[in-house]
Amino acid sequence: FSTLWLPTAALPSCSLPTIYILPGLLTPPLQLVKEAEVFNHRETLGDRHPTTLVAINNLAGLHMANGEMALAESLYRECLQARRDTLGSTHATTVISINNLGTLLSERGDFEAALPLVQEALAARRRELGPLDPATLKSVDNAGKVHRAQGSHARALACFEQALDGRRKVLGSRHIDTLRSMNHLGSTLYDRAMRAPGEGEDEPAADDPATEGVTGAASPAKKKGGGFLRSLTPPSSSRSPSPSKHSRSPSPSKKGGGGRGAEAQADPAEAAARAAAAAEKRRETDLERARGLFR
């Protein structure tokens, strides 16, 4: 055995003064090195020094890669809070921490907690870096993944289409990130086409940063009106029109008589048939688009 000597103080919660390394292994385990880095920076620079926070972030990433999600989350939260307090929520390194924590929560399946963080990172990057920066497009893609995991196909598709369009323009059609976007879009189209009949569909929300500027996203008026169809109904005037001199009040319709002005009631069976035909047409379109992306 060869021996690598490290100061005892560099080893957090460790009473051994030496680390034994197998022949041919030139460095100690990476996680131990990262833990020693964090320990030393905390002792010499303080818990909130930028260098300490970089070390904490890197150690959290290593824990996440090793599947130690609870440890990673604790460190990511500490790093994020410190950066918010010292640098502000819109600083570039703070946004990295926001994105990292959102990604971890998404990996753990906590999509409700992940989505606000992913959207916050996206809004900041869109504002500071522009809509076509690779980091912004990565955040758009991340938002799409969370929406897809929640079953919000329309929102996910809006994100993936935007990410794919931007990556084609910036990176080209053969870049690995562009190909990932094609895969995400195609798989989501396939998932929507294969879902059980009768499952509801959503409209992209107007306040979702990921759908900003995306064709087909619901406008604020639509959301405020409580649904897409309701938004198409003209708003009633707050003041009733004053009757003119020559206007006559409508005569009441005779009892039992429908009258010419009565609205025809739509046949429920016919409406259901039209809806089923539209759903089938969209299903075929989704499958065709997915096939085109996977070819």
Walk me through this protein's architecture.
The protein is mainly alpha-helical and 295 residues long. It has helices at residues 30-44, 50-65, 69-87, 92-108, 111-129, 134-149, 153-170, 176-194, 220-224, 228-231, 268-294, and strands spanning 2-5, 18-21. Strands 1-2 form a two-stranded antiparallel ribbon. α5 (111-129) packs antiparallel against α6. Residues 1-21, 23-27, 213-247 and 249-263 have low confidence and may be disordered.
Question: Mind sketching the topology for me?
Answer:
Elements: E1 2-5, E2 18-21, H1 30-44, H2 50-65, H3 69-87, H4 92-108, H5 111-129, H6 134-149, H7 153-170, H8 176-194, H9 220-224, H10 228-231, H11 268-294
Helix pairs in contact: 1-2, 2-3, 3-4, 4-5, 5-6, 6-7, 7-8, 8-11
Defining key terms:
295 residues, mainly alpha, two-stranded antiparallel ribbon, 2 strands, 59% helix, elongated, disordered N terminus
Report a brief summary of the structure.
The chain is mostly helical and 295 residues long. It has helices at 30-44, 50-65, 69-87, 92-108, 111-129, 134-149, 153-170, 176-194, 220-224, 228-231, 268-294; strands at 2-5, 18-21.
